[in-house]
Amino acid sequence: SKLLIASNNQKKIKEIKEILGDFFDEFVTFSDYNLDSPEENGDTFSQNSLIKAKFGCDNTNLVTLADDSGLCVPFLNGEPGIYSSRYACEGDDLKNYVKLLDKLKDVPDNKREAYFISVIVMVFPNGKTLTSEGRVYGNITKEPRGENGFGYDPIFFLDEFKATMAELSSNDKNNISHRAIALKKMREKLGGVISE
Ligand code: ITT
């Protein structure tokens, strides 16, 4: 069966395809239907994920999956949170993480904890919706390191790997990431649903 990934973020789309692998026969995205992303005016990750998934399904009548994700720093009351992709400048990964590094400039190690969160929503043409969430915990570094991944990956340090998310191979990232956790939960929820 065919899955619409309700996203315009190419790096995110690539990860979703890698993680869901052979679960679907074909993947399509907003650009295949000349759809611009809807305005994400929700207050939470789940609301924004539902907005994107519903918009995709309404416009194509395809089974649609959306990911709304971001980085949360408890010391900064959850910033950048739902504003992660537009923290300093919409879609500019470098400016966004530099802004965060700057805000944490004089903040000691024990207050630099953070987590990535991904909320996956699937919407079916019959109106059914499914939701799953994944989180991964780490610490914000003082300097960026690594070239892989996207977004805040270069400043997100994982104790388990003694490396930033951007220093992991895509294989390793796709085993442990917030997105991987949420998508694996979604696979379990799906069971036979998509073949019905
Ligand atoms: P779509 O809405 O089109 O899917 P987007 O990039 O705007 O693309 P979000 O609104 O969900 O997506 O914002 C997610 C932002 O959170 C993303 O732009 C990154 O800045 C950050 N982020 C999410 N997942 C990440 C990851 O795996 N690694 C690093 N940063 C991530």
UniProtKB/TrEMBL annotation:
Task performed by this protein: Pyrophosphatase that catalyzes the hydrolysis of nucleoside triphosphates to their monophosphate derivatives, with a high preference for the non-canonical purine nucleotides XTP (xanthosine triphosphate), dITP (deoxyinosine triphosphate) and ITP. Seems to function as a house-cleaning enzyme that removes non-canonical purine nucleotides from the nucleotide pool, thus preventing their incorporation into DNA/RNA and avoiding chromosomal lesions.
GO molecular function annotations of the record: dITP diphosphatase activity; ITP diphosphatase activity; metal ion binding; nucleotide binding; ribonucleoside triphosphate phosphatase activity; XTP diphosphatase activity
Substrates-to-products reaction catalysed: dITP + H2O = dIMP + diphosphate + H(+); XTP + H2O = XMP + diphosphate + H(+); ITP + H2O = IMP + diphosphate + H(+)
Catalytic residue list: 68
Cofactor binding note from Swiss-Prot or TrEMBL: Binds 1 Mg(2+) ion per subunit.
Gene transcribed to yield this protein: rdgB
Residues that hold Mg(2+) according to the record: 39, 68
Class in the EC hierarchy, top level: hydrolase
Family of this protein: Belongs to the HAM1 NTPase family.
Keywords (A to Z) from UniProt: Hydrolase, Magnesium, Metal-binding, Nucleotide metabolism, Nucleotide-binding
Name assigned to this protein: dITP/XTP pyrophosphatase
CC terms in the record's Gene Ontology section: cytosol
Residues that coordinate or bind substrate: 7-12, 69, 150-153, 173, 178-179
Biological processes annotated in GO: nucleotide metabolic process; purine nucleoside triphosphate catabolic process
Organism: Alkalicella caledoniensis
InterPro entries: dITP/XTP_pyrophosphatase (IPR020922), ITPase-like_fam (IPR029001), RdgB/HAM1 (IPR002637)
Coiled-coil intervals, chain numbering: none
